[in-house]
Write a structure and sequence with these properties.
Residues 315-334 are annotated as: Disordered. Keywords: Heme, Iron, Metal-binding, Oxidoreductase, Periplasm, Peroxidase, Signal. It comes from Vogesella aquatica. This protein is an all-alpha fold. It has three domains: 1-30, no CATH class; 42-172, Cytochrome Bc1 Complex, Chain D, domain 2 (Orthogonal Bundle), CATH 1.10.760.10; 178-306, Orthogonal Bundle (Cytochrome Bc1 Complex, Chain D, domain 2). 34% of the residues lie in helices and 2% in strands. 48% of the residues are buried.
Length: 334
């Protein structure tokens, strides 16, 4: 019974494998294929794309959403912790924005209920974009082309933070990555995975990680304790859900990360301490399962995880509206 409980609870990070490998995926697999994005409001998503890339939403005029969630790098920055205003060291690893619309909440501690709420956080965070919502709105309202686009999307040219974050969220909703090789296998393509990759999936399942690394995003749908079998030792000060709920039971409980595109989103864990997938799988086996994976098992699981890389967002980079004479100048230096 203890082993079963550990396996179910070990889902937080990266673990081991389940059931019989079959040539064609049965209907009851714990992971489902990601569906292609359905753009509900193309004009709003296009406006949101511009805002996502616009550095003028930061005090320095140097940092955009894409700075920490780089769409050329798996939706992350590939740093242990991100760099903020005045080269401040960020407090936590930047989670991928790809497939983030599938998360039950946003940020590692889940303090934002959705993408819209999340989008406003970094703008006003003194350690990130270091602006205020009011100043960001003033900048956008001073740019005639933006005012025109807000009018086209919302019916009038009023610029406010609610519309800004709604637009950014609409763009981020489109950032899904379907048609990975694993998705192709799930859909019945018997040749999509190699023997080693199928072995890795079996190990991934039987070790119990699918208890939480499941669904279309292969995670992102629950909070779990980091360090189940033994405490996770880190110098990072982030303590997870306790910062939101105030409950000591939530200390070191973090949102389970999606494993979609995980080969691109290194380094791993909330503190970025695992530099490679091999290191991440090995650490999680020990901390969450109390299990020492063999080299072959590690190689197999990592091989499987590479099959979760889907089609990356492919779009034309936006040409941002030019500032006007009334646009406040950026302040990159204090």
């Amino acid at each position: 019974m203890k082993k079963i409980v550990l396996a179910i609870s070990a889902c937080f990070a990266l673990g081991g494998g389940i059931a019989l490998v079959q040539a064609a995926a049965p209907a009851n697999e714990p992971i489902q294929p990601i569906k292609a994005a359905k753009v509900k409001n193309p004009a709003m998503a296009e406006l949101g794309k511009k805002l996502y890339f616009d550095v003028r939403l930061s005090r320095s005029g140097f940092i955009s959403c894409n700075s920490c969630h780089n769409l050329s790098m798996g939706g992350t920055d590939n740093l242990k912790t991100s760099i903020g205003h005045n080269w401040q060291k960020g407090p936590i690893n930047s989670p991928t924005v790809l497939n983030s619309s599938l998360n039950l909440a946003q940020f590692w501690d889940g303090r934002a209920k959705d993408l819209k709420e999340q989008a406003g956080g970094p703008i006003a965070n003194p350690g990130e974009m270091a602006f205020t919502h009011e100043l960001a709105v003033d900048v956008l309202a001073s740019i005639p082309q933006y005012v025109t686009e807000f009018k086209q999307v919302f019916g009038d040219g009023k610029v406010n933070i609610d519309r800004v974050t709604q637009s950014i969220a609409a763009f981020e909703d489109t950032l899904v990555t379907p048609d990975s090789r694993f998705d192709q296998w799930l859909k019945g393509n018997k040749k999509a995975l190699s023997a080693q990759e199928l072995r890795g999936y079996q190990t991934f399942k039987t070790a119990g990680c699918v208890a939480c690394h499941n669904g279309p995003a292969v995670g992102g749908n629950s909070f779990q304790k980091m360090g189940l079998v033994k405490p996770y030792i880190t110098t990072n000060t982030a303590e997870g859900r306790v910062a939101v709920t105030g409950k000591d039971a939530d200390r070191m409980n973090f949102k389970v990360p999606t494993l979609r595109n995980v080969a691109l989103t290194y380094p791993y864990f909330h503190d970025g301490e695992a530099a490679t997938l091999h290191q991440a799988v090995d650490t999680m086996g020990k901390l969450q399962l109390g299990r020492e994976f063999s080299k072959q098992e590690l190689d197999d699981v990592v091989s499987f995880l590479h099959t979760l890389t889907g089609k990356q967002p492919d779009f034309k980079l936006p040409i941002l509206p030019p500032s006007s004479d009334k646009t406040p100048a950026p302040k990159p230096f204090n």
